[in-house]
Design goal:
105 residues, 3 helices, 74% helix, 0% strand, elongated
């Protein structure tokens, strides 16, 4: 891949910032309760794969991108599914009095 030098340095700086986010996510993971660690693990994995992708772009390595991009897609899909399920679980269930009205009324 032919990436301009200024863009390579930008990806290196971005990877350095992402390392800080990985450290922060690891700290939050250590503080999480044993039954609630899946979300923080997904955040750590997402940030770590983001660092790998940024370094891969900085080095111009297509192999790193081809390995990290599907992994990031799977992690993002898991986070999205968890968010949808959490939103569905937080929605209150309708009571019998609040049910659907018959069509004639």
């Amino acid at each position: 891949m032919d990436i301009p030098d200024w863009l390579r340095w930008a990806f290196c700086a971005f990877a350095a910032v992402q390392v800080i986010f990985v450290y922060r996510a690891l700290q939050l993971l250590r503080l999480a309760e044993p039954g609630r660690r899946t979300g923080p693990w997904l955040v750590v994995a997402d940030d770590a794969v983001g660092v790998a992708m940024s370094v891969g772009l900085a080095l111009g390595s297509l192999n790193v991108l081809l390995a990290a991009a599907p992994l990031m897609l799977v992690i993002g899909a898991c986070r999205g599914i968890r968010a949808l399920l959490a939103r569905r679980a937080a929605r209150p269930t309708p009571t019998a009095a609040e049910g659907a009205a018959p069509a004639g009324q």
